[in-house]
Amino acid sequence: MLAITDDDPNRLPDHTEPDTATPRVLSILSFVLERLVNRNELLSLSKGPGRLGKNLEAFHGVRSPAITIPKYLDRIYKYTDCSPACFVVGYVYIDRLIHRHPGSLVVSLNVHRLLVTSIMVAAKVLDDVHYNNAFYARVGGVTNVELNRLEVEFLFMLDFELTVSSRVFESYCLHLEREMILWNGTIPKIERGIHTNAIEDIAEISVEDMESFSSPLSNGGLT
Length: 223
Hints:
Helix content is 49%, strand content 0%. By secondary structure, it is mainly alpha-helical. It holds the Pfam family Cyclin.
């Protein structure tokens, strides 16, 4: 069994280029998702396990991962260098999915897989250059086979409707910003721009220990 930890000796290598400021969208999205998950966890306890619904079972892990949502989003951004807009569009996709399949809740068992899948799909749509599924799988703590399966499941659940208009994008940015103002008292601004990645050298990645991500439907971690 495997788990992501910050001091894992087999963690992904540190970037050699200078660090850039962490996009504000990561902290805003983390805040909103943590509140959503906490609310849904309480709801599922009060309504019983069946309240979770079965539509998101493909994204459920055996147990909740040890890594927090903020650290997981930071990890994805740090190693994939996808544009900040991908995190907003990934959130749009998850919201669409939930509206298309009511009765299923975003909870601690599925939020990480939903995030890595949605952000990866968003990067393919938005960014001219992006990493492949195998890279995202290593960053996200799942097997390549599992991530491929999750991507197909995700796309079909969305009926392949991946277009996000500028109007919809702006409305979701405003929604996320309002949530922060309402609950945290801060007045953040999400980065609206979409940048193009320039990938030159992809560092070799070691196999990581990611115990909590072992899925009932996967082979159990990276190979």
